[in-house]
Amino acid sequence: MRPVRALQLILGLSLFGTVFSGTLTYHELFGATAMSCPAPGAPGTVFGWPACVYGFFMYMAVAVLAAAGLRGARPKHVEPGNVLHQT
């Protein structure tokens, strides 16, 4: 698999993960059950926050890194008349 294709696949999966965990995060923090969230240290929380909050930011970080990798992998613009020679 080419590196560019791998970055595209990683970007797509991380965007899906960002949307999925973002939806879960929204429902956990702002949904009808938000007032009955477990206390800090309860099972299902990490430092008092639902685990999906951390997943959201991790998927977002992976998406940003994959997008930056794809942006850096774009072919450079070559002016007409300039020929790149490989040695």
Number of strands: 2
Shape: rod-shaped
Mean pLDDT: 83
Q: By helix and strand content, what is the structural category?
A: mainly alpha
Give the termini separation.
26 Å
* Residues in β-strands, percent: under 5%
Helix content estimate: 55-70%
What's the alpha carbon Rg, rounded to whole Å? 20 Å
H/E topology pattern: HEEH
Total helical segments: 2
The description of the largest β-sheet is: 2 strands, antiparallel
pLDDT < 50 runs, ≥5 residues: none
Strand order of the largest sheet: 1-2
Task: Summarize the structure in words.
The chain has 87 residues and is mainly alpha-helical. 9% of the residues are buried. The chain has a domain at 11-32 and 40-72. A hairpin with a 2-residue loop joins strand 1 (45-46) and strand 2. Helix 1 (3-30) packs antiparallel against helix 2. The chain has helices at residues 3-30, 51-72, and strands at residues 45-46, 49-50. The chain has a two-stranded antiparallel ribbon with strand order 1-2.
